[in-house]
Design goal:
Blueprint: E1 9-12, E2 15-16, E3 19-20, H1 22-30, H2 32-38, E4 42-48, H3 55-60, E5 65-70, H4 79-93, E6 97-101, H5 104-117, E7 121-122, E8 127-130, E9 136-142, E10 147-152, E11 159-163, E12 180-184, E13 215-219, H6 226-239, E14 242-245, H7 247-251, H8 257-260, E15 273-277, H9 283-289, E16 294-299, H10 305-308, E17 312-315, H11 318-331
Parallel strand pairs: 1-4, 1-6, 4-5, 5-12, 6-11, 7-11, 13-14, 13-15, 15-16, 16-17
Antiparallel strand pairs: 2-3, 8-9, 9-10
Length: 332
């Protein structure tokens, strides 16, 4: 492998049913500083069917070149169809850097591409930069968040990383910007496909997505049960907020992993008010709430780690405190 042959910074333009995911724009904003240091072109890679009109939006957010692969077989994501196309594109066009969103889709696709093209992958990065040698550095919290690891891939290309939503700033949209479009031929033998999408189910959220909510009420393992979880949801309803969760609460089935988990491998939030109930405060979770304007902890343990990260701490049994709050708020 001649590393010098690899040029260009790629962003996977994740879309679902013809709508670009916000993480795509965040990645385009984040790679701008990389491109400014390396002088390389910022490129977006878009797969789907009938998605060509999305090119203008990608250009408005900073993509200088857009690779578009379209086929009816790409309308819905499956790793069986996306992986070989992406791998062949990497082998043909040789990007130096390739970033994907740390979403359920991106985390499924990225390691498969990396394995196909024999390169490394830094997962769950919170930021990326360029070192003095011109290599990309991915910053990844380790050992419970107490150490920030700097990971580089200096002997293989492309340098790949997944970055969850919320860590990179979405750039200003500049309508009217144009990008070079390159269409990619898609040759898929449908007879060899082992999987297909039969039906899509839509589960409409009961509240705003966490990254848009001004108020977030989050519950942890200390909530204790699915029945007690209703107390959390009731407080969120009264405050017009959204419900978040820690990983243990999601593992117990009280909340949805992809939609409600907050933390390093979940959502990063910036609400005006965050209330954590029954949460000890593992660093993985605190990373996701650190940009909240006001943090309130409700916990029986006044020495819980979350207390040190909070502006206000209510010490006691949440089953008494939260219903009392709801009762008072109902009077307002």
């Amino acid at each position: 492998m001649n590393i010098e042959d690899y040029k260009g910074i790629w962003v996977f333009a994740e879309q679902r049913e013809g709508k670009l995911a916000d993480i795509t724009f965040e990645l385009l904003g984040g790679v701008r500083k990389l491109a400014d240091k390396t002088g390389e072109e910022v490129c977006a890679v878009l797969l789907g069917y009938g998605v060509a009109p999305l090119a203008d939006e990608l250009a408005a957010y900073g993509a200088q070149k857009i690779y578009i692969a379209e086929s009816p077989l790409l309308k819905q994501y499956t790793n069986e169809t996306y992986t070989p196309i992406m791998a062949s594109m990497v082998e043909k066009y040789k990007p130096s850097i390739f970033l994907l969103g740390g979403t359920s889709l991106g985390m499924d696709l990225a390691p498969r591409i990396a394995a196909k093209v024999s390169t490394g992958l830094s997962a769950h990065a919170v930021d990326v930069d360029i070192d003095k040698k011109g290599c990309m550095i991915a910053f990844i919290p380790s050992f419970g968040g107490s150490v920030m690891a700097s990971i580089s891939c200096d002997k293989r290309r492309p340098q790949m990383s997944t970055i969850p939503a919320g860590f990179l700033a979405k750039p200003e949209k500049k309508s009217g910007q144009k990008a070079v479009i390159e269409k990619i031929a898609v040759n898929i033998d449908q007879s060899k496909l082992r999987t297909k999408v039969v039906e899509i189910f839509h589960d409409e959220p009961k509240s705003k997505p966490l990254n848009q909510a001004e108020v977030v009420i989050s519950g942890g393992y200390g909530v204790g049960s699915k029945e007690n979880w209703k107390i959390i949801e009731e407080l969120a309803t009264i405050l017009g907020g959204s419900v978040g969760a820690t990983r243990p609460a999601c593992d117990e089935g009280w909340a949805k992993l992809e939609d409600q988990m907050i933390g390093q491998s979940g959502k990063t939030i910036r609400p005006k008010l965050y209330i954590g109930v029954g949460i000890s405060g593992a660093m993985h979770h605190l990373i996701g709430i650190k940009d909240s304007k006001v943090i309130v902890a409700i916990n029986a343990d006044e020495k819980a780690p979350i207390a040190a990260a909070s502006d206000y701490v209510l010490v006691g049994d949440f089953k008494q405190i939260v219903p009392a709050l709801v009762k008072e708020l109902q009077r307002v």
